[in-house]
Design a protein that fits this description.
Strand content: 5-15%
Radius of gyration: 44 Å
Helix content: over 70%
Largest sheet: 2 strands, antiparallel
Shape: rod-shaped
Number of helices: 4
Length: 136
């Protein structure tokens, strides 16, 4: 913001300078173009290309800023899509973990039931001491 104000102040001072010295800027003088000499106002010959360059630079700066803003918007959209995809992937992983833990719990319960059945069979076959006599 300060730079913009500074540029505007400098432009205003230069415009005031040109306006105050318009007679000197518009006075014709002989100007050599190398192969020919012409009569032209030296101040305008210098001032007009400078003004054209300033306008070209301003247009270029605005165009560059527009391109940068477009790129920022595109990158922001891509980042939002990536974050959404990451959240969806995390949600899927959480669901998979929950499913895995449920399957593991079911497997543990089934294994415990099978072990209990085997212990009962071994006790009936008198391969293991009975649980009542083992506790005494």
């Amino acid at each position: 913001m300060i730079r913009k104000i500074f540029v505007l102040i400098v432009a205003a001072v230069l415009g005031l300078f040109a306006w105050l010295n318009w007679n000197a800027l518009s006075a014709t003088t002989p100007i050599s173009l190398g192969w020919v000499t012409v009569q032209a106002p030296w101040g305008l010959v210098v001032l007009l290309p400078a003004l054209v360059l300033c306008v070209v630079f301003a247009v270029w700066a605005v165009s560059l800023q527009a391109h940068v803003l477009r790129d920022v918007r595109m990158n922001t959209r891509a980042l939002q899509q990536r974050e959404l995809a990451d959240r969806e992937a995390i949600a899927r992983l959480v669901e998979l973990r929950i499913d895995f833990l449920r399957a593991l719990e079911a497997s543990v319960n089934t294994t415990s039931a099978h072990i209990g059945e085997l212990e009962d069979r071994m006790e009936q076959a008198h391969l293991l001491p009975s649980s009542a006599s083992a506790s005494e």
